[in-house]
Design a protein that fits this description.
This protein is an alpha/beta fold. The protein contains 10 helices and 12 strands. The chain is elongated, with a radius of gyration of 25 Å.
Length: 391
């Protein structure tokens, strides 16, 4: 089944602790929505999935990309945390309709804080259900339009910045290689310094696009279940060349059985930025240790280095965008000042944060805390998402 819905197809996921209520929602929406003027444009098909379990409903939202998600106010995910928050984590654009046993201002405000577009009292009439679906769809469209505009701006700006950099870099490479004529030693050194500056600028553009990507995510987040050891291994492999050049040893301590539910790009970006800093701000012959462990409701990543460390004044500015460590020893270290800001923004997406312990001239330890999904321990055919492509 294709990941993206056709313009004429309205996709809806329903999770309800009462199977009869879930089936009533499905039956009413399938009968009332197609061909009616309640939703514009009129959809010629309404595809509705009633999830047998909250975990399957959560995965359906992340992988099937529906426009609307119906969930009752008592449904909880495997961790006991609010399923609405986890669904929003997997798909920022989905509109959520919360069905509540009673409706009062306190419940309405709480539902809005959790990300619901509409609250539907139980029991509800057919008209109330269709009206809630219409409000949710309008919310979904608004989110998509705003996200598309921001993403288009980021892409355009990134292209406009990268194109001249490519041209300048190609010219510099040709000059260094002697393809445009001989150069003396002084000119060669100047050209090499210019090449280094171009690489720094390219890194800044890449970080800017990553920063924009988090704020204006056009792609839907791909929430997968995967091994934490596999994640760490990939990130370490990506940093191996820089670590070897700086004579930095990277050690890891990750349980082989530990699994997590997250977006791979986000986790690789978060951990990759922390590891990159641990290598760049280390000392020759130093080391970096990556540790991962879990508790009942959280998973922790630790990145500890034997680098130059930071004083309290530097720590206070650490996660601010475009803020860099001011130290004579780091003047030649390339960077944009966005890496740690990006890492923290990603941690916040998982109800987490990053804490730092640092001692000047001894090193730093960054500890990332992310909300843990205990549903990753479920296995077997009944746990598989019905919308995964078989081919």
């Amino acid at each position: 089944m294709a990941a993206e819905a056709r313009a004429q197809e309205l996709r809806i996921v329903v999770v309800d602790r009462e199977a009869a209520v879930a089936e009533r929602i499905r039956a009413i929406l399938e009968r009332e929505l197609p061909g009616r003027g309640v939703l514009e444009p009129v959809f010629d098909r309404t595809d509705i999935f009633v999830a047998p379990t909250p975990c399957q409903g959560c995965r359906a939202v992340a992988e099937w990309n529906p426009a609307i998600f119906f969930v009752d106010d008592l449904t909880r995910c495997a961790t006991g945390r609010d399923l609405v928050r986890r669904v929003r984590e997997g798909n920022h654009d989905v509109a959520i309709v919360l069905t509540a046993g009673e409706l009062n201002p306190e419940i309405a405000m709480d539902a809005a804080w959790r990300g619901a577009s509409a609250v539907l009292p139980r029991p509800f009439t057919e008209e109330q259900l269709v009206h809630a679906a219409a409000r949710a769809l309008e919310s979904h469209r608004s989110r998509r339009m705003e996200r598309d505009r921001r993403y288009a701006f980021a892409l355009t700006l990134g292209h406009e910045l990268k194109s001249p950099l490519d041209a300048v870099e190609m010219t510099l490479n040709n000059m260094v290689a002697g393809l445009l004529g001989p150069v003396n030693d002084t000119q060669f050194d100047a050209l090499c310094r210019a090449q280094s500056r171009i690489q720094t600028m390219r890194g800044l553009v890449t970080d800017f696009l990553d920063w924009s990507r988090l704020a204006a995510e056009h792609r839907r987040r791909n929430m997968e279940i995967f091994s934490a050891a596999e994640l760490v291994r990939r990130v370490v492999d990506q940093a191996a060349e820089a670590a070897e050049a700086a004579k930095i040893m990277i050690l890891t301590d990750v349980p082989a059985s530990l699994r997590m539910r997250a977006d791979r790009w986000e986790m690789e970006t978060l951990l990759g930025n922390l590891l990159s800093n641990a290598v760049k701000y280390n000392r020759p012959g130093g080391r970096v240790v990556i540790r991962v462990h879990e508790e009942e409701a959280a998973i922790f990543f630790e990145v500890e280095d034997t680098g130059i460390g930071m004083d309290p004044a530097a720590l206070s500015r650490l996660f601010k965008p475009f803020s860099r460590l001011r130290d004579p020893r780091t003047e030649g270290v390339p960077g944009s000042g966005l890496g740690l800001a990006i890492a923290r923004e990603i941690a916040l997406l998982y109800d987490g944060n990053i804490e730092v312990d640092s001692i000047p001239d001894k090193g730093s330890r960054f500890t990332v805390c992310l909300r843990r999904c205990r549903g990753v321990q479920q296995r077997g055919p009944a746990d598989a998402c019905p919308f995964e492509d078989s081919g």
